Amino acid sequence: MIYTIVGGGSTFTPGIVKSIALRKDELEVEEIRLFDLDRERQDKVAVVVKWILDEELDSGIRLTVTYDEESAYRDADFVFAQMRVGKYALREMDEKIPLRHGCVGQETCGCGGLAYGMRTIFPMIKVLDDVAKYAKPGHWILNYSNPASIVSEACRMLRPDARIINICDMPIAIIDVVAAALEIKDKENIVYDYYGLNHFGWFTGIEYRGEDIMPRLRDYIMEHKILLPDAYLKDKIALGAGTSDTHRNRHAKGSWYYVWKGIYEIMSNFPDTLPNTYLNYYLQQKEFVEHSDVERTRANEVMETREKNLFDGIDKYLRTGVVDENVFYAGSHGDWIADLAVALKNDTKARFLVITENRGAIPNMPYDAMVEVPAYIGKKGPEVIAQNKIPLFQQGLMMQQLNSEKLLVEGCIEGSYQKVLEAFTLNKTVPSMNVAKAILDDMIEANEGYWPELR
Ligand code: NAD
Ligand code: G6P
Ligand code: MN
Q: How far apart are CA 161 and CA 129, in angstroms?
């Protein structure tokens, strides 16, 4: 079978390829194709991908590196998407422009996420159309490209029949951290209940081998005043990190450190559920702005660490023939998407969190909301597990965020300045209409050539 990766030049490509190759029998992998618009970047990443397939794993899998849609998708069975439209240069703007106006600057949350959504909607629709044209009729597109909730809403609106499943690795990363905190080695025996929007949800129950571990977890978090155990930071696999300080787990410092600390702060007030890390940006927006440095945001951290380590590592390999596998990220992120493909292909009915149209799964959310909930995955796609009615606090927060994102998608499609301004104004991270307008106008300038024209 043929597996195509769109955004082949991504820093996550080597890790995903490794996860696919490690499942080559279950996935019947014959060929992996990389497709990216940035030829130079993809060619570099392909060097390490080839090393993984041929040298490290001796996989026998054929690698094809392509730059045009037809050869990327022709007869493909699975398409894994992970493109970053505008790359890190515009991620930096997504983060810095709102901060300049005193608001949360984050790549997927608040105004930054809305701006990134405006850039990504139409390129994603193009992927759907190209894949529908060339790939096998029963293909699946598994999408990681952010901002996943806006992308998924646009796909729902514009291409309701597309064979796409949008996913996120954050909940599974949180479960990795929970397992490390509670010293659970066999994390596959953890089962959890969760609901929300993407990057905007709550774990309502976590069980390990039948035991409700929420009370133990709560005690751990209250005692340590953070959810970031040493065991997780030291786990080389979970980090894909490695030896020197610059390769350390990305979660150990900078912006990520605050969100793990924020879990403690949120649970001190609202102890019943374990919040997604991203809720910090909406519940502690003022504090986030206070500890941010407008000159140096997460985009800078990523460029100086994950991106630099990968490309320096590839250059070193080309010079010396030696690969330090610690320069690329492997682990849960790749395993999650590859395991999802296994479930779809082999009809396993394994349980995954997916971003999907609500259709009554959360009774007091709109029918057409794109929500993130557990589902059993088989060859026909997700069978969503129905939820109970959710409390007013969470429902109110979710409705505000949902409507902000829906207005953004509608505004993008219609080219409506007013709707996009409403989306920015409605977002919980923005304190006033005038601030929303100032951020939006700066964003229009920064995104020239990427955003549709707004009238
Ligand atoms: P990156 O910049 O290293 O890689 C993205 C690649 O996409 C680049 O090589 C770029 O040239 C390419 N690209 C941009 N527009 C494209 C297009 N229209 N067609 C084909 N390729 C295109 O970024 P990264 O940090 O490795 O992240 C990759 C993506 O994965 C981002 O969207 C990121 O937000 C997302 N991501 C999502 C999750 C999740 O939980 N959903 C987790 C991790 C990463
Ligand atoms: C988590 C989220 C992703 C996001 C990523 C950013 O994995 O689930 O949606 O893209 O974090 O990580 P970074 O290291 O690029 O800040
Ligand atoms: Mn995510």
A: 11
The mean pLDDT of 168-174, rounded to a whole number, is 97
Nearest CA to ligand 2 atom 10: 146
40 alpha carbon, closest ligand: 1
Check if 278 is active-site: yes
Pocket residue to mutate for ligand 2, from 142, 302, 372, most atoms within 8 A of Cβ: 302
**Segment 42-51 mean pLDDT:** 97
**Which among 87, 88, 104 has a CA at the least distance from the CA of 37?**
87
The per-residue pLDDT for 376 is 98
Alpha helices in 146-213 (DSSP H): 148-158, 170-181
List, for residues 146-158, the tens digit of each pLDDT value. 999 999 999 999 9
Provide the whole-model pTM.
Answer: 0.97
State the pLDDT at residue 451.
Answer: 98
Q: Are 113 and 107 in contact (CB under 8 A)?
A: yes
User: Is 194 labeled as catalytic in the residue annotation?
Assistant: no
Residues 192, 278, 282, 329: which is the catalytic one?
278
234-260 pLDDT tens trace = 765 444 443 444 445 677 777 899 999
What distance in angstroms lies between residue 168's CA and the mean position of ligand 2's atoms?
Answer: 9
Q: State if residue 146 touches ligand 2 by the CB under 6 angstroms criterion.
A: yes
Q: What is the predicted pLDDT for the residue at 248?
A: 53
442-445-446 Cα angle (round to 5): 85
Sorted by sequence, the CB contacts under 8 Å of residue 441 that are 6+ apart come out as none
Residues framing ligand 1 (Cβ under 6 A)? 6-7, 9-12, 36-38, 41, 82-85, 87-88, 123, 144-146, 148, 168-170, 333
d(CA 301, CA 408): 28
